Amino acid sequence: MTAELGFVHRFEPGSSQATLLLLHGTGGNEHDLIGLARELSPTAKLLSPRGKVLENGAARFFRRLAMGVFDEADLKAQAADLARFVKDAAERYGFDPGRVYALGYSNGANMAAALMLLHPQALAGGVLLRPLLPLEPPTLPNLQGKAAFLAAGRRDPWAPGERVEALARRLEQAGAEVELRWQNGGHELHPEELEAAQDWLARHLA
Questions:
Q1: Which residues form the signal peptide (predicted)?
Q2: Residue 156 annotated among the catalytic residues of the structure
Q3: Catalytic residue (one of 106, 119, 190, 204)
Q4: Which of these is catalytic: 74, 81, 88, 187?
């Protein structure tokens, strides 16, 4: 663990040419998704930053004003900072900046979506667990050749279905290949959708 490059973070080497950018949910940290990432993609390099925004002491990647209401100015600023961090980390640790995929949950999944929409050069795609459309991009990016796996819950109070589908539409309109998988549940994750995410990663990170 190190606080260099502007984020407290962990980097774990791997034999794959691909790197997973691990983006935790609210109240998480740079350790939260390491175990899950190793299960889903045993050989990937792992880059796991801690969100720098605090909400009642809980780390997040950007501010929210209320449930489902995000501070868009802060989101844009934090996304730009995270994109810079990924670029700098690629130079520091020697991984390919063109083979970075996000693995994000909840707030981290929303930050991954924001990166794809605002800083498409930062990610080749990603697994977004319980995401929604975090903001309307000023212009649609070019996401040709990029891919995203979205895992959503039909009864998720934190990620309403219409905002999940809005994210899938925006990514598709921008040219990304999108797989949207619905689970008959809430904000919690289920083994079968993690197996589907593992299969997706095996296909895209090979």
A1: none
A2: yes
A3: 106
A4: 187
How many residues comprise the chain?
A: 206
Q: Look up the CATH number of the domain holding residue 137.
A: 3.40.50.1820
Write the CB contacts of 102 (distance below 8 Å, at least 6 apart in sequence).
20, 21, 23, 108, 109, 112, 115, 116, 123, 125, 126, 127, 128
Structural domain boundaries enclosing 154 = 4-204
Give 104-129 pLDDT, tens digit per residue.
Answer: 999 999 999 999 999 999 999 999 99
Domain count, the chain: 1
Tell me the pLDDT tens digit for each residue of 160-191: 999 999 999 999 999 999 999 999 999 999 99
Active site residue: 9, 48, 119, 156, which one?
Answer: 156
